[in-house]
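forwarding from the other thread:

> can someone predict this with zinc ion?

sure thing
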Amino acid sequence: MDHLCPVCNGFLSLHEECPLCSEPLDDSGRLYDYYGDYSPYREIDDAKLTNGVQDALHHHCLHLGWCPRCRQEHILAVEEWDEVTLYEYDGIR
Ligand SMILES: [Zn+2]
Ligand SMILES: [Zn+2]
């Protein structure tokens, strides 16, 4: 095991706020699951997200949050855990 996403693995629930209105976002699931195979970057701004973020988001898992007020989805980067973090989590549980 190398890195894993605590949200995908059920250790944490997604708790992020909307960047526009600070409303708590609903968890819409994992980005790749949501878009499926056919077009993973359909709605994503290429310049912003395919290049820069791919590198910046190394060891991050992309999730979708739905803002009920803006009626808009936001992409959230969840930091993945390494074995040390996971071990510490097990220790304090
Ligand atoms: Zn995840
Ligand atoms: Zn919002």
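The chain is about 30% helix and 25% strand. thats all i got for now
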